[in-house]
Amino acid sequence: MQITAVNENCFLIQVADHIDLSLTDKIAYLTRQIELSLADSLLDITPSYSTVLVQYDLLKVAPLVVEKQLESIVFHCAQKNVPTGCNKVIELPVYYAPCVGWDLPALSAKTGLSVEQIITLHSDNHYRVCAVGFAPGFAFLAQVPQAISIARHRSPRAFVPAGSVAIADTQTAVYPSDGPGGWQLIGNCPSILFDLNQEPVSPFAVGDYVKFKPVSRTEFIDLGGKVIDER
């Protein structure tokens, strides 16, 4: 693992030079140890598939001190058998239908699978949270069954509704807020996945698992879901 100063108050830890889902436990454990060590001097920490970006408060700690702390953490993590299987499972309700999953018909036509088969393949899987980023509360989840893997749109939509459940290549995700996006939409989750007034602001942490639970239109509406026509 390599530690590099990105700017005056950020270090990047390179865990590996390739994407490998077997790294997720190591990155999750490394993230937790950094959070415990830096405590209130930590401004932000962003784990991804193969790196951890650490931003700290210069008013509370000096760069050299942080670098030494990170070196110690990285050394001990490299020597330790990282615990597995201790991460939580987050179950999310999803309404799978073309009225909210605007790309379901196209995905069905491309794969030759029925909408029902796509729903079953997507919802039967447990997905690992491998990174959180792009937008606040946006969790990159892996790995989608190959049968329903599909490339993102060449041209992103200007508007994707909050809660949209989507696929891009072998990843899946839920858009936590309204905004642009290029992933293929297959459903919508009515759960609030990013709220600055809650603690934590997002339910996702790298290493967690996500399980999608299909719900009916009535259940979706009762849970606060909204059907928004494609724009």
Topology, element by element:
Layout: E1 2-7, E2 10-14, H1 24-38, E3 42-47, E4 51-56, H2 63-79, E5 89-94, H3 104-111, H4 115-123, E6 126-132, E7 139-142, E8 157-160, E9 164-168, E10 171-174, E11 179-181, E12 184-188, E13 209-214, H5 217-222
Parallel strand pairs: 5-13
Antiparallel strand pairs: 1-2, 2-4, 3-4, 6-7, 6-13, 7-10, 8-11, 9-10, 9-12
Helix pairs in contact: 1-2
The helix content is 10-25%
In the sheet with the most strands, the strands line up as 5-13-6-7-10-9-12
**In the CATH hierarchy, what is the class of the largest domain?**
Mainly Beta
- Overall, the morphology is elongated
Tally of structural domains: 2
Tally of DSSP β-strands: 13
Structure description:
This protein has helices at residues 24-38, 63-79, 104-111, 115-123, 217-222, and strands spanning 2-7, 10-14, 42-47, 51-56, 89-94, 126-132, 139-142, 157-160, 164-168, 171-174, 179-181, 184-188, 209-214. The protein is 24% helix and 29% strand. The mean pLDDT is 91. It folds into 2 domains: 2-79, Gyrase A, domain 2; 89-222, Cyclophilin (Beta Barrel), CATH 2.40.100.10. The longest helix is centred in the N-terminal third of the chain and has 17 residues, at 63-79. By secondary structure, it is α+β, with helices and mostly antiparallel strands. It is built from 5 helices and 13 strands. Helix 1 (24-38) crosses helix 2. The strands form 3 sheets. It has a 7-stranded mixed sheet with strand order 5-13-6-7-10-9-12. It has a 4-stranded antiparallel sheet with strand order 1-2-4-3, with helices on one face. The protein has a two-stranded antiparallel ribbon with strand order 8-11.
